[in-house]
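Here is one chain, start to finish.
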Amino acid sequence: MNRDLAARLTKRLRAPLPGDAAHARFSPRPKGGIPLTRTPPADVRRAAALILLYPSQGHAAYSLPLTLRRADLPDHAGQISLPGGRIDVGETAEAAALRETAEEIGVDPSEVTLLGSLTPLYVFVSRFLVTPFVGIAHTRPAFHPEPREVAELLEVPLEALGNRDNIRWGHRTREGYLIDFPYFELGEHHVWGATAMMLGEFLSLLDPDFGPAENVRP
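Its structure:
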């Protein structure tokens, strides 16, 4: 892993984060309206996720893993997600992010160095408040996806995520409203919603103005 990138991210994660402003750029929104926002309830469930960078292409570039969730799961079925899940009682968010990544895609926690956390994001569909962490592995992990949860493991080049040409706008009906939503187009897969919002904040650490072009909304 490039020491300069790791040092740059560590320094940026210790500074004020883009937070809601970055989330809003990738938030679904009512047709022609403002981004959707919700306030977490008092009994919100808590979860953690991990953006895991690792060297690819002979250490000249970097990738991160995403998962295509099985279609029969109770939450976010069939969607593209970061590895992560519920924080157990008495467990720290950091420990949960590493444990869930190990359980879902087989990454040994001892191979991961956590650099810091991003802004917690409330996912009102599943009622989870998710704390995303950024971590690095110095070599490509030996991935072992859990077949009961993961339909497909995606190894996504950081360069592809950071390419604005791969950001599109779509629309669908949700909770009775027609919404516009920005998404990352990664081959046949579309990354949108909470995962896109967390990735959007992460990419804003490297490029403060990163986001979809508003003038091409459908």
